[in-house]
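Section handout 9: paired folding examples.
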Amino acid sequence: MSAFPTRSLSTHMRQTSNAASSTGQSPALVARVNEKRAELENLKELRDLSAAVAAQMEALEQKLATLSDGTEAIAMVMNSWHNVLRAINMASAKLPKPKPEESAASEGAVLLPQTLVRIPTEHAPTVQAHADGEAQEE
């Protein structure tokens, strides 16, 4: 016969692992396994926290985009405001000046500027009610 044992390698490995488990694991190996489990838990917590930070950053990105759009709109209004004031000034210059006898008669009353633009108000209550309804829904 052969000088080598006749048992197969897998049977030998099974018997070795069974012997190790039956005698107990070394304390160093148990400590290392526990360290790895703790590290795994920390990594899972880090993953969850990172996902929460990423979601908050996406929400912040959307808010900043809205803020940027609003800033652009305000800049456009501010750029056109000079033209609005110039148009009001030009329109005011073309208005007839009050006659001296009219100004003497109305000294006790408050003089109001003449209306430059007339805005129809017949639909104002409907528009206001609609705006109030939207505000209450939010």
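Moving on to protein 2 of 2.
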Amino acid sequence: IDYVCHDDLPYASAESDDVYAFVKAQGRFLPTQRTDGVSTSDLITRIVRDYDKYLRRNLERGMSPKELNISFLKEQELNLQKHVSDIREQIKKNIQGTREDLVGELEDLKAELRHTKLFWEDRRQDFVRGFSSMFGSQVNKIFGRKRREITNGSADHNSPSKRVRKADSKASLTSTGESE
């Protein structure tokens, strides 16, 4: 035991009035003040739990393994832990960076698609005008002739629309009992 830190109150046991009397006699007792809400057990647990972090941090700051009283194997273990930790951090950064890159690329693609859609919507009228200026007279002739035939009743008797009308009228005549 190097030192014992505890509050200065005597703690009695079956063998002694103060369990820390022998340490106090050796000059290795450091009295502390009690602080409400601070548990010595919690502090010791944190020190033991974070001991490797403490050692790694002090090695990184330039302290030697000898100054920290650690063996060569413990030093190598700490170095390995640091490398593994660095690799994990690098992977996390790469994953986050890749995710951000993908999100950015998707946003760029969406913007480009919106732009393309707007471009073609704007150009639609121009294409219709261009088409009708090139083929408008022929289209008007075809549709105009059909329209006149339908209005005048002189459409081709073999046209699909005429055959359908003829078939419909035959069916209605047969259902009423009349014949042609």
